[in-house]
Amino acid sequence: MFNASMNIRFPKYVVDRETIVSTTHGTPNALDLSALASDALVKNRKNAWIQLAGHPGFFAPAGPTTIWKRQPENENTEIKSYQQLMSDSVRDVVPRFHREVRYNDGVFIELEDLLEHFNDPNIMDIKMGTRTFLESEVRNQAKRNDLYQKMVKIDPNEPTAEEHANKAVTKLHYMEFREKGSSTASLGFRIEAVRMSGETPNADLKKVRTKEEVMETVVRFTRCNYTICRHFLARLQEIRSRFESSKFFRNHEIVGSSLLVLYDHEQNSNIWMIDFAKTLKVSETLSHRATWCIGNHEDGYLTGLDNLIQIFTDLTNCPQAGSDGDVIHHVNKDI
Q1: How far apart, in Å, are the Cα atoms of 70 and each of 109, 173, 282, 291?
Q2: Are 282 and 186 spatial neighbours (Cβ–Cβ below 8 Å)?
Q3: I need a surface site. Which of 13, 131, 258, 278 has the fewest CB within 10 A?
Q4: Nearest Cα residue to 214 out of 74, 114, 330, 333
């Protein structure tokens, strides 16, 4: 482990526990480290910070091409995952892990800054899997009024007659109900957020639920660029192939992980698997496609990847899809 309190340099940056101040070009730019955290929040050295979606945490620029991601106290789940992934078949489809760093009583992992490969990119964060909660989060069968109130506010018809009488639901029922509100339960993934070049991020996409709605969102994101869609399809197929041969994922459940999808106006494009804070080792051998029930640890990651690949296959096989550089003018609504 690297101890950052021992002779470390921060070129162009002054760092304390709360704030990073960039002194590039002599213009101070304070960045609050308490911003939402996801691997989709990265520092593009050519532009400004770009924030898409995620959970509370911390990021900081580490060097010309790397970032620091703060780790939760007393947890090393993501550190262990990245350490093992660097020698696994998926090592080329995840950010490069450099080291674990301790600084000012905090623990960080230093990762490749994926945005450094692009110039003001378009970015999509896709949350993978048929569930986004750990089994440990829903084992308690206590019925809760607060979750009942949240549920009926969204859909008064969702609770059973017994739940209505008790005015309470279990967390399991509530979490499964919440997943059905997006494409997570039906397709095995959901579009978490999108940021188009030069625009502010749009994180209000959790209600994009049907395959048609997902297709329309993807078409808008890619701007119907056939070449980019074809590149994304090939990369998704590569990720699936590497995933299926991975020794690591054979016995690890993957919850809350995302695919980070990027391209820019120069036709640079790529996709990476990111965010392994809820990736846990299990005793079972997982298919990542089987239906989940409490105790089997199945996460539906490959179910989501299969469906995502099918969407990009349909896009590139569309009768009116063009050749290199052309656009897709039409989407078949019967997919």
Answers
A1: 7, 32, 25, 33
A2: no
A3: 13
A4: 333
> Largest Cα–Cα distance in the chain?
65
Q: Which amino acid is at 303?
A: T
Q: Could you give the CA distance from residue 62 to residue 76 in angstroms, rounded to a whole number?
A: 20
- How do 66-70 and 59-61 pair as beta strands? antiparallel
> pLDDT tens digits for 181-194?
899 999 999 999 99
Phi and psi of 334, rounded to 5°?
-90, 10
Q: What percent of the chain stands above pLDDT 70? A: 77
Backbone angles phi, psi at 2, to 5 degrees: -95, 130
Backbone angles phi, psi at 36, to 5 degrees: -55, 140
DSSP 332: -
193-to-40, 139, 206, 240 alpha-carbon distances in Å: 9, 29, 8, 22
- Tokens encoding 285: 């051998």
Q: Which of 309, 273, 270 is nearest to 289 (CA)?
A: 309
Of 137, 133, 112, residue with least CA distance to 262: 112
